[in-house]
Amino acid sequence: MLEVQGLTIRAGTTTLVEDLSLDLAQGRLTCLIGPSGYGKSSVVKWLSGVLAPELQAEGTAIVDGRSAALPHRDIAYQAQQDTLFPWLTICENARLGLEVGGMDRRAANDRVRGLFPAFGLQGHEDSFPDQLSGGMRQRAAFLRTIVQEARVLLLDEPFSALDAVTRLRMQDWLIDRLAERPRAVLMVTHDLYEATQMADRVLVMAGGPGRIVAEISITTPRADRTEATLAEIRSALKSMLLEETP
Amino acid sequence: MMNFWYIFPALVMMSAFLGGWESYVALTDASPLVLPAPSDVLNGLRVERSEIGRHALATLGVAGVGFSLSVIFAFAVSIVLHFSGWLRRGLLPLLIASQTVPIVALAPLMVLWFGFGLLPKVLLVILVTFFPMVISLMSGYASLPRAFRDQLVSLGATRWVVFRRATLPSARAQFFAGLRISATYAIVATIFAEYAGARRGLGIYILSAKNNFRADLVLSAVLVSAGLTLALLAAIHGIERATSRRYRRVSDA
Q1: Is residue A82 part of a domain?
Q2: Interface touch B249/A48, C-beta < 8 Å
Q3: Within an 8 Å CB–CB cutoff, is residue A182 touching chain B?
Q4: B121-150: pLDDT as tens digits
Q5: Which domain holds residue A33?
Q6: What fold, for B37-252?
Q7: Domain annotation covers residue A48
Q8: 3-class SS letters over B140-153
């Protein structure tokens, strides 16, 4: 589906990410985990075509076997911060991607409104973002991302701004949404509990310069994932992260 | 309705100021040629109201045309400067330099170059009022959070779409701040232009009142010009409130 080959990102003479390769498959959720500052976000931003201008990147993105220019229609990006525009209603925010993509306003409106119930936002179509709770705003951001029908979703720490309870609810909720419409998902997180709870596969990133040092598949079905069944993987990941963090 | 107790201090200070002035004139027997009492000023305004009104209308017309063109011009310039770093570096010093020119010196030259018609006055109003708007717009454009821009770019938006969808809306609050600053200059700049040469307008009225040693009428006209500026500010405030339910959230956030 999506493949990254030999991605190197530099800030002047400092190398942030070195020769990183990864691949994402349809219907699989991959978590990219590692401490802050190791270039996780930069990888995702590069794939979204929004790498900060002071960074230089070289590498190839391959979509369906063909080298692709970025940003790409089939790759949707959701930033770390909740980037709902405060001057647009939730509905206007949600259809922004469709409109930018050239869809007629009315068609975009119909498509977006149909999804409001599934995202727990019915009745809030014409609310403004500041009238919603953090969890609802995040669901609205997901709505905007998912409605684009891109086959690859890049999520940069989507739950980091939420309180602990809302975060747990949103993790389950997102898994359900993804089950309805399978995509290839790359989710950046620094939370190994979150990663092991949600992912099919965890990529561990280490720093100096940033690279992937381990790839762990989690085969336990999500329904069976508990503290007990995940204990082994979690402790392995934990020691790996501690080891790689100076 | 504005809370009475909120504006109460302003009313007290204003009354104290006017009362003090009125008493000073009464007690010292100051010549009305030099310092007319507030009551003389109001009386002058009453007697001359149709004449002053006619001139005020002319001033308002010039200021209105000049200010409107200035807003359009400021938008055009700010957009050009936003999209072209080359022009920004080239033109910004020139624009700043244009603000260091004293209008007192420039107004008569404008009349010399462009005659007594509308053009020199409108040009002067534009010259004085467009700069605060350009600067406010530019700083408004710069206030767009990077994440907002990234969100649109990742959706495949062009530079223009980013500008229209995110940059421009996020500059709204700063634009109105600049607009208010400019509005306070608009009437004053018009009067200056008329002072240098005009057939009608508060500026020429003030000049002739001064030449006739009618300090009371000078102040009557000044009072009217202050009223015009306040009316302009109120209109802008009204427009901002009427159109901004959704945008107020940006500045409040």
Answers
A1: no
A2: no
A3: no
A4: 999 999 999 999 999 999 999 999 998 999
A5: 1-73+191-246
A6: MetI-like fold (1.10.3720)
A7: yes
A8: HHHCCCHHHHHHHH
Of the candidates B147, B145, B151, the residue with the CA atom closest to the CA atom of residue B169: B145
A26 occurs within a structural domain:
yes
Which among A71, A88, A128 is the nearest to B154, CB-wise?
Answer: A71
Residue A155, phi then psi, degrees to nearest 5: -115, 115
**Residue reference for tokens 């990006």:** A77
> With an 8 Å Cβ cutoff, are B169 and A87 in contact?
yes
**A100/B249 Cβ within 8 A:** no
In eight-state DSSP terms, residue A16 is E
Task: Give tens-digit pLDDT for B99-123.
Answer: 888 888 888 888 899 988 899 999 9
Residue B10 in tokens: 């302003």
Residue type, B50: S
Using a CB cutoff of 8 Å and minimum separation of 24, what contacts does A21-28 make?
A: A21/A212, A22/A186, A22/A203, A22/A212, A24/A152, A24/A184, A24/A185, A24/A186, A25/A1, A25/A184, A26/A1, A26/A151, A26/A182, A26/A183, A26/A184, A27/A182, A27/A183, A27/A184, A28/A184, A28/A185, A28/A200, A28/A201
Contact B97, B34 (CB under 8 A): no
**Residues of chain A neighbouring B157 (CB-CB closer than 8 A):** 100
